[in-house]
Write a structure and sequence with these properties.
about 180 residues, alpha/beta
Length: about 180
Amino acid sequence: MDKKSLRRAIGEKKRAMTAREIEARSQILAEKLFETAEYRRAGSLYAYLSFNQEVRTAPIVARAWADGKRVAVPKVIDGELVFIWLESFDALGEGYFGISEPKENGPVATDEAALMLMPGLAFDRRGRRLGYGGGYYDRYLQAHPHHPTIALCYDFQLVDALVAEAHDVPVDAVISDN
């Protein structure tokens, strides 16, 4: 299946999910994440902020704070993705494409060993990822290659194989809810 068709098919499955299903499946995924050595070992977490039917990350962020971790979230500044330290959900406002972002442009996060949660539409077991088409995370990871990366996904987002392009940066681990 080509990227456009796969994006459409996964999008349809995501839109068919109920709010209750999204929350329940997100909770399962969060618990699986908390059990990983990568999460336990991380001093900082770079987490995307959920949009539409994505796996909910606000509970993960709250747990990371409770676990004593620093948390940074993405913001697009001048067309580039940066991560901003987040101390409170009150520091967020509507940003790029209507996705929540920090209201301020700083302080910029600088923990090159922080665990990064990766968003995406589809993943395969080799860590290849189909994003939303902007290339923001691939460019960020090319410039900051030492982050351990984990993708959380619903079972239908995990496909047999994705075709990677030269600029695609695979994730280190993919966790699905089944």
